[in-house]
Amino acid sequence: MRYDCDLHCHTVRSDGNDSPEELIKNAAKAGLKVVAITDHDIQPPLYLETDDGKVDIRVFARQNGIGVVLGYEFSCDTYVDDVHILGYRMNFESPLLKEEVERAKRSKSEAYRELCELLTSKGMPVDYENEILKYTDEEGNIRYRDPDEVQRKHIFELMAQKGYAPTWKDAKIMVRDDPELNVRRKKISPFDAIDLIKTCGGTAVLAHPFLIDEIIQYPDGRNLTRKEYIEKLINHGLDGIEACYPYSKTSYKGPLKDSEIEILVKQEYAGKVKFFTGGSDYHADHKKGVVNPRYLGEGGISIEEFNAIREYML
């Protein structure tokens, strides 16, 4: 099935494989009514360059028969994997947000170069310069990335291509679960992310809560349960939680089905947050030959549910 509104999608601006223009057109073709652009650690595009010149992205979406929500996915917490806060309805031209974008870029480029060096030292050669910064796209063309554009998923995809892991998801788990490989880049704290979103006039939503480990272990010996961690975020002003999400196509390690997680999240946090959202976390992975990739609208909410929270999204 496809949901009417997919509020968590990625483009080539971070680690997706559709351009923003392609994402909007593909979502419209798939019959969605609303699609969100929520790239990692970078503002969404406010305008698109088309054959007709520079066009406001919202106008372009309407011309294609679909609504677009603009967002920003903050990668949070240096010591906890997969804590992502989605910021919607923000002032994306805020100097404070631009400062965070630059800080995140610097932290990524340094950490990902180090990860490639560590993989190579452990018998899994990954050449940062000639395989990550310089790469071949799906059409066989040689492309170049700026170091600030590199995402960990680019490294995981290459690991799968080279046979170090069956899929990029397996590569992610391999790196995550190996203390020597799991290079910790300096990430914004989730509390600071929530504060920044609110300062920029936005709405803060916790993405894929069950990708956070059930028991969180900090280097200083502190332990927190996932539930305790989320309660802290709620107490700090978290507005919503992503409830409908395709965990079965991610690195989720638990036994629960996607539908069971959605029910649990809604039962546990009803009345504690203002609303629930949903999204596919679409990356257009089919372009990279990924078997059984996430598709647009695989996670999401109905148009009726969206209209009830429209004021928080637009």
UniProtKB/TrEMBL annotation:
The protein's matches in CDD domains, at most eight in alphabetical order, are given as:
PHP_HisPPase_AMP
Task: State one molecular function term (GO).
Answer: 5'-3' DNA exonuclease activity
List, alphabetically, the SUPFAM superfamilies matched. Answer: PHP domain-like
Superkingdom as given in the UniProt entry: Bacteria
Entry's Pfam families?
Answer: PHP
The residues covered by the Polymerase/histidinol phosphatase N-terminal domain are 5-78
Q: What is this protein called?
A: Polymerase/histidinol phosphatase N-terminal domain-containing protein
Q: Which organism is it from?
A: Thermosediminibacter litoriperuensis
